[in-house]
Amino acid sequence: MAHVSIIGTGNMGQAIASVAGKGGHTVQLLGRDDAATAVTGDIVVLAVPYSAISQIVTARAAGLAGKTVVDITNPLDFETFDSLMVPTDSSAAAEIAAMLPDSVVLKAFNTTFAGTLAAGSVGPLTTTVLIAGDDAAAKSELAAVLASGGLKAVDAGPLRRARELEAVGFLQLTLAANEKISWTGGFGLVDQA
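Structure for Dinucleotide-binding protein, as requested:
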């Protein structure tokens, strides 16, 4: 079983903790201001807003070395909801990877809402978590945690695909904010193989 540390106790942090717990994995849930508490998990989920990432990563860089760090952020301007806040040739995950050269960085969870993670479904479909990253073993380990918790995980490719995942997350958030879809809805993935 995996040991998962989640930094962030909001809706997403709670939902991810629930999924990992359902799968029988141990979970450490830390508030983003709990900088004095050591991160003990091999998988560390940054379940905080994009605006908090730099401070948390800077404060915890040494403790994150050698760990798989999962970025769930959607780096959008929450005041205007009109643009991503990273360069067009980059992503929040790429920025985190640059700040944490001794960690394996994955992008995941940003294309799902907390409600669909907790429920395990989007309408009639099993909730699917898209995972991008350059380390196949780390992606497989996270996928196993998700599968054991009742979700579907799909490898979305290398970490450079994080930019497209952030664009999908941005679209979904703006649709929900403009009441085009509900916060318990979202995109589903149908496999017709």
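The first strand starts at residue 3 and ends at 7.
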